[in-house]
Amino acid sequence: MGDVQLLTVISTAFSRPQTATEIVRGIASGLKIAFRLNGATTNFLDFRQDDISETTLRTEFMNLFNIRCPPSLNNQQAAPSIVYINEFEISSPYDETFIITDMAFCGRRALTNSNEYLVNGNTLNAEYMCFAYKITTRNPIFMNFQVQIDEDPPVIEHILLTLRNDSRWHYKCINLRDMLEEYSTMYMIADLFLISRAYLDYYVPSSVMIDTVTLRDSLPIGYEEDNMIMSTDQSSTGLCRFPFFYNGQNHSSCILDEDNMPICGLTPNTKFYCQNSSIEGVRRLFPKYQLLDNSFHIAHSTMNHTIDIFFRYTACMSPSLIEVLPPTVGQAISITHASKPVDGQYSIMFNGQLYYPIPAKITESNLANLLQSFSDFGFVDVARTGECAQYSYTIQWLANGEQPLISIANSSEVKPIDAPMTVLSIRPGSTISVFYNLPNDLLRTMIE
């Protein structure tokens, strides 16, 4: 591979941060290229020998914004024991409030619909079922397993799971044979069994999230049972107590601090650096910034040997410049900068009345509530499109009659300065009152 980037030490038995030292620098082969953004690096790609498509490039760059788990959890090439995998990754609409650590254990998305299958159409035997979960309800969690024993017809088993409901992400592996034998003695005499489907009980609420489901023949590397995690995530310099508070949040496992070093506890003057870490801790790598899903576009020109990438962060800040690795084989150039986010407030004029203040980035529901709070505005329905640099609001009155046009009275407090604001009439309302003839039967009342 030639010259490669330095290792990052994320677990140490010492009382202070440790660094990796480069002894001998390799020579770049010039055959493979990788890209780095905010400390995260893609796989090395061979543009000469392999057919690198835009789909491949999109996957590589999108992975820089994913939660990256240890390969043995969800990579079938790295862990051949995996016979079935479901990651629940789907595209999503614009959402500037999206917080990836809440929405996924690996990747960017998790299952939030209890009516969908965790496993569907599996045809291979497996010893374990592993999955990540986050539960915010106190209700018992049942899972249905469609099981086929030897050559018998499949049956549905309704089994209660023992899971932690503390609103945090956890990772659990179930020994399927032990679970089924405990549920029914008939599985003790079964030579083989097959889990073809698995799904949450119909009555499980939507407050349960599932991610990174696998059926497999062996446990992931370094897997710990629930009762072992707090003893795994420990420091050599002091006893870590969980949960501990850091940056305004409490944590039940090791986390990375601002220097990307794993810590498992804090005292007023001392940081405890993790000696070991669990899968639920810092063995997962988190993106520095979060991506707006619908902002990412990529175009690859094999003729010009160029890759054009457009994206922006949920924080609406200008993205960092992508680095080419090794730097001798390519150059990254910033073509355009991201527009600054809209902020501030403005006033509007409607039917001779001045209304103020209207926040520039107000949500559609809050705008509807605000407008309806004004005595002369009436009832409205509001829809918002766009993203943090530009919003468009469509206001529809729910009552009959043509409404006066809204005008912008003052936008001097809107940022960035001189941000354009326009108002258009899409469709005028009707000024004619409409009456309907009701059949006589609807006007009669029976009295007994």
Counting helices, strands and paired strands, the structural category is mainly beta
Percent of residues in β-strands: 25-35%
Specify the helix fraction band: under 10%
Query: Globular, elongated, flat, extended or rod-shaped: what is the shape?
Result: globular
Low-confidence stretches: 440-445
* Rg, Å, rounded: 28 Å
| Quaternary structure annotation | single chain
Discrete helix count: 6
Could you give the count of β-strands?
Answer: 24
Question: Strand count, sense and closure of the main sheet?
Answer: 4 strands, antiparallel
Following the backbone from N to C, one meets helices and strands in this order, namely EEEHHEHEEEEEHEEHEEEEEEEEEEHEEE
Q: What CATH architecture of the domain at 66-223 would you give?
A: Sandwich
Q: Look up the CATH topology of the domain at 66-223.
A: Jelly Rolls
**CATH class descriptor name of the domain at 66-223:** Mainly Beta
Q: What's the mean pLDDT score?
A: 82
SSE blueprint:
Layout (H helix, E strand, L loop, with lengths): L31 E6 L2 E2 L3 E2 L7 H10 L7 H4 L7 E5 L13 H4 L13 E4 L7 E8 L5 E9 L5 E7 L8 E6 H8 L9 E8 L7 E9 L12 H4 L11 E3 L2 E3 L3 E2 L5 E5 L4 E3 L23 E5 L4 E5 L12 E3 L19 E6 L2 E7 L4 H10 L6 E8 L2 E8 L9 E4 L38
Antiparallel strand pairs: 1-2, 1-3, 1-19, 4-11, 5-10, 6-9, 6-11, 7-8, 7-10, 12-13, 14-15, 15-16, 17-18, 20-21, 20-24, 22-23
